[in-house]
TrEMBL record:
Native species: Streptomyces lancefieldiae
Name of the protein in its database record: Phosphotransferase
Domain (Aminoglycoside phosphotransferase): residue spans on this chain: 104-216
Database matches in Pfam families: APH
Annotated InterPro entries: Aminoglycoside_PTrfase (IPR002575), Kinase-like_dom_sf (IPR011009)
Domain of life: Bacteria
Signal peptide limits: none
Length: 274
């Protein structure tokens, strides 16, 4: 859920770290605070004397967990994709620590184009124009061609988790490609679209990004059908396998309290695919 940490002390700790990070990067806070998933990140519009309007994002983790794919994702994505697709440029980063926590501050290009939806789960049709879909497809096709050693989905996880949630064997992944890794309408802007939040990018099954966008859109059939029309890979066997994997991921997430309203639609889609 996109909300502050439930503990008031954690909220205050994050706000103090955000203020320190803005000062270290030479930026001045100029907008309201925006909390990320379960309060793990805190972001805001800031002004920088050289860059102008920017977006400052602060990631927090306990010191012993401040490493790995998510911790370095946006920095590594910037090296591969900045200037090649519609994504905010990454200008600068700073790491710090205090009271047993590590912080990673990222100063990004400010994108005035609003996000397509406030929640990953789409609840109303956006009806974007054909150009929006074409731009998204083109950008994702470019992402697919870029080599990376990062891994977003592992076969071992598929083998272990799909039977648990769908009572079927996990599909064998036969094709791998680089993916954004968290593609939903809260990570897309409404008119371009820009692709946001790259911390989870990496190798995934062919069709994974399209399957993720579809799964999060199931409450809005008109939009979901546009996803299917835009990404024909979803009608292939690799695309169907990718959908099974994404459905399992979201069912696992729902079992922890995230977006339970999606569960009936996810299970209906799984039954169709099976």
């Amino acid at each position: 859920m996109y909300s502050p940490p439930p503990d008031l002390a954690d909220q205050q700790r994050m706000r103090r770290a955000f203020t320190r990070s803005a000062a270290t990067l030479g930026a001045t806070v100029a907008g309201p605070e925006v909390w990320g998933w379960h309060g793990r990140t805190l972001s805001s519009h800031v002004e920088h004397p050289d860059r102008g309007a920017c977006w400052l994002r602060l990631l927090s983790a306990p010191q012993d967990k401040a490493a790995g794919k998510i911790w370095e994702g946006n920095r590594q994505a910037a090296a591969l994709f900045d200037g090649h697709i519609h994504k905010p440029l990454l200008y600068d980063t700073k790491k710090s620590g205090d009271d047993g926590y590590a912080y990673h501050a990222e100063l990004h290009q400010y994108i005035a184009d609003p996000i397509a939806s406030s929640s990953p789960v789409l609840r109303a049709d956006l009806d974007p124009p054909t150009e929006w879909w074409e731009s998204l497809r083109t950008d994702l096709e470019h992402v697919n061609t870029v080599s990376t050693h990062r891994v977003a989905v592992r076969q071992e996880w598929v083998d272990r988790t799909v039977p648990r949630f769908l009572d079927m064997p996990g599909p064998r992944i036969t094709g791998w490609t680089t993916a954004h890794g968290d593609l939903h309408t809260a990570n897309l802007t409404s008119t371009t679209p820009y692709l946001l939040d790259w911390e989870g990018f990496g190798l995934a099954p062919v069709g994974y990004d399209a399957a993720m966008l579809l799964a999060y859109s199931l409450l809005v059939p008109t939009f979901a059908n546009r996803v299917r029309d835009t990404f024909p890979v979803l009608k292939t066997q690799p695309g169907r396998d990718a959908q099974i994997i994404v459905i399992t991921e979201l069912l696992q997430s729902a079992s922890r309290g995230d977006h339970p309203e999606l569960v009936p639609n996810l299970r209906d889609l799984a039954a169709e695919l099976a």
